[in-house]
């Protein structure tokens, strides 16, 4: 989608620090980490947020969670938090569905 920051990152038009990539999703480190390890996992196909998940596109969400399970193991993260903000009042600033993965320390309440 035009003018979507994460679509541009997926397309390689904006640089990112890649953690993982496959045909369906892309994972990269957050530019402003809130924990020692903080990365984002996004579907390659633009979905604006959790509120746009439906029966037709939900399979990618299950896939993303399987990727999170695999990548966190590879990174040695035994404990971590997965967060997705939906809507401005919830703190969403980039309107392309993304899952924050935070770990590497005892996490304070309310991160992300
Ligand atoms: P949210 O506020 O939940 O929509 O999350 C958006 C996240 O994207 C924030 O944690 C930002 O720090 C992160 N972010 C914004 N721009 C970039 C970028 N160019 N590369 C990596 N992460 C970014
Ligand atoms: Zn997008």
In brief, what are we looking at here?
The mean pLDDT is 97. The protein is an alpha+beta fold. It has a five-stranded antiparallel β-sheet, with helices on one face.
Give structural attributes.
binds adenosine monophosphate; alpha+beta; 5 strands; five-stranded antiparallel beta sheet; 2 helices; about 110 residues
How would you explain this protein's 3D organization?
The chain contains two helices and five strands. A hairpin with a 7-residue loop joins strand 2 and strand 3 (37-43). The model has no long low-confidence stretch (mean pLDDT 97). It has a five-stranded antiparallel β-sheet with strand order 1-2-3-5-4, covered by helices on one side. It is an alpha+beta fold and 112 residues long. The protein has helices at 5-10, 59-74; strands at residues 18-21, 25-29, 37-43, 80-83, 99-103. The protein is globular. The longest helix is centred in the middle third of the chain and has 16 residues, at 59-74. It binds adenosine monophosphate and zinc ion. Zinc ion binds at residues 1, 4, 6-7, 46, 96.
